[in-house]
Amino acid sequence: EKIPVGISACLLGEEVRFNGGHKQHSYIQKTLGEYFSFRTFCPEVDIGLGIPRKPIRLIRRDEQVICVDIEDYKLDYTQQLRDSADAQQGWIRDMCGFILKKDSPSCGMERVKVYEGHGTTKDGAGIFAETMMQRFPALPVEEEGRLGDAVLRENFIQRVYVMYRWRQLLR
Ligand code: SF4
After folding, report:
1. Does residue 107's CB lie within 6 angstroms of at least one atom of ligand 1?
2. What kind of architecture, by CATH, is found in domain 3-54+78-108+124-170?
């Protein structure tokens, strides 16, 4: 039996990005795929944004970080992304870990660019990912970019395996 792990759909080659492309990651798909049974998701498609679509970004407004249309900051998708993460808690809680697409205003785990005035800071998290991590703080989460680091990769795999064993004991 493979271990169930959630993953940003574009990392498995699904053409769901704003430009109709993907960000297929062959190590994750081929090597980790031998052990993990992947469950894909795309928060932006899930809330009804099309493919292709205009990009969205994080901005800071009144001390809050929100997710808006890149050209029209009045189009605010923050609540929809949060609500979508909450509505999907049923399957999210069944996963033993998550692999998230870095730098995404929806999926990024940390260090996502936040626009403020004429500058940017790299201290945001994707809105869907952040909501999910708040609801399930014990779930192992990692980004594809960091899986190239052997120590971080082993650490993540270990945490996923511990979660899997723990779930088996509770069955
Ligand atoms: Fe990939 Fe997430 Fe962006 Fe969808 S929202 S294209 S899964 S990074």
Report:
1. yes
2. 3-Layer(aba) Sandwich (3.40)
